[in-house]
Design a protein that fits this description.
Elements: E1 5-16, E2 19-25, E3 41-45, E4 52-55, E5 66-72, H1 76-81, E6 89-92, H2 102-105, E7 109-115, H3 119-131, E8 139-145, H4 157-162, E9 166-171, E10 182-183, E11 198-203, H5 206-218, E12 226-227
Parallel strand pairs: 7-8, 7-11, 8-9, 9-10, 11-12
Antiparallel strand pairs: 1-2, 1-6, 2-5, 3-4, 3-6
């Protein structure tokens, strides 16, 4: 049985096509300090709605009271959440899941794979890497979106790259957008990057996760070096 607490909607803003940033204030109660690992998730619910699972998109902060989420306008609960006015109360659980094991990536090259709203679970990993960049080898983010306008956190990409991280973006459905960058799925763009010392963190739709894991297996990356956040 989940242990439910209340949080308050403090901000909401468009993040990309079909995606919205939502910020909840958890107050100074029992949830403070419970977000311990990048990639953890919580359950959110509203009266009369079944709960849903959402990754915390902000990095762990021992004394922080603001949790960020990236909502995809897909389904009754996300649609209701992204239309809530500020000040509305939302029910939330303590963070769940192991998150991503940053300690296992230390001293290794780190491959980050995210597609669509899956970047929400990878964003806190990036923040943690930047806090002690020298602890990791080469860091590459493979970030896929359906269209050029559906990359969340587009305004942060330059900052991520300035923090000594390679960002590889690819679009699966460019259409007539005039997109000049890479197309197709994220796993198609590993290229000849050496992977002998690599650890991979992966988040996205099940089909994308399976595709990435199979590609990494073919490239010789052991399953023990590939991590999901659940």
């Amino acid at each position: 049985m989940s242990d439910w607490h209340t949080a308050t909607v403090t901000a909401r803003a468009p993040a990309a096509d079909g995606l919205t940033d939502l910020v909840l204030d958890i107050g100074d109660g029992p949830l403070v300090g419970t977000h311990a690992h990048p990639g953890q998730y919580v359950r959110l619910r509203l009266p009369g709605q079944p709960p849903g699972i959402f990754a915390i998109a902000s990095p762990p902060a021992p004394h922080g009271t603001q949790w960020e989420f990236l909502l995809k306008d897909d389904g009754a609960l996300p649609s209701a959440l992204l239309h809530l006015p500020t000040g509305t109360l939302v029910e939330v659980t303590r963070p769940e899941g192991p998150g991503f094991p940053m300690e296992k990536a230390r001293g290794h090259d780190l491959l980050l794979f995210a597609s669509g709203s899956g970047i929400s679970a990878i964003r806190p990993v990036i923040a943690s890497v930047h806090q002690e960049r020298a602890a990791y080898g080469r860091v590459t983010l493979y970030f896929g979106a359906r269209t050029p306008g559906s990359f969340a956190y587009a305004g942060e990409l330059e900052r991520w790259q300035a923090g000594d991280m390679r960002v590889v973006r690819t679009v699966s459905q460019p259409g007539a957008s005039g997109w000049q960058g890479l197309t197709g799925y994220v796993q198609a763009h590993l290229g000849e990057e050496p992977l002998e010392n690599a650890v991979a963190f992966v988040c996205g739709p099940a089909e994308m996760v399976q595709g990435v894991m199979e590609h990494l297996r073919q490239r010789g990356v052991p399953r023990s070096a590939v991590f999901l956040n659940y």
